[in-house]
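Recall that a protein's primary structure is simply its ordered list of amino acids. Everything else, from secondary elements to tertiary packing, is in principle encoded there. The following example makes that idea concrete.
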Amino acid sequence: EMNDTKVYILDGGSLVIDGFHVFWNRGPAGDVRFPCYSVLIDHPEGKFIFDTGFDKEHVEKVLPFEKPLQTDAQTLPGSLHAVGLTPGDITHVINSHYHFDHCGGNKHLHNATTICHKAELEGYHKPQPFEHLGYSDKSFDLATDIYTPRYETVEGDVEIAKGVHLMETPGHTKGHYSLLVELKGRRPMLFTADACYSKKNMDMNCISSFHLDLVASLESMSRLTSLAQEHEAEMFFSHDPDSYGSYLQAPGYYS
């Protein structure tokens, strides 16, 4: 039952991008350092991870201008260790999308079933020219298949476990998912992922610059607002330096 579900926010370090990328065509310019995190859902039906952060070595090699900061404790194995788990305990990995800062820890999850949006897999394997850096971490992909033991593509909104819903929010990428988790003791949690970087993006109705389809991106931000109202959910943003400090981080959890 939902009663026993716990949600952990696993801190994964931080990256830097320019303000004009955080707030597309609005800015202001200049370095903005923002958090990256994973969501662990400890559920009666399994241990699910939504997004797995970035791999520091990859970022230093391919995108050094994003100035990655990540301690050993902020790697996925490190943050799981802090809640008494190992990567082998994870039964399912879901990525909102396959940009490098959301799939960098996938390569550690050898026992997990991979769940991914059919369109996202297509976008990842055949990116537009301007998406190549976003899709640059291929450490978990053996050319055409994801190397976890089981792997399934899904489409549309889907409930992957009781009270754990993937909601289609395309635009940032071709098959982007946001995550809605129902809990017994509090309002549902709506993880926007990169459909909305921050509360300020939402308030300004301003998308980030790393998008495939800017009109779909705006529609997805609007959809997130509707979902939050419909489910009386609290929004948790993907890269929000202002809100992040107020999120309860592991080993604390929401339930």
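The chain has eight helices and 13 strands. The CA atoms of residues 124 and 135 lie 6 Å apart.
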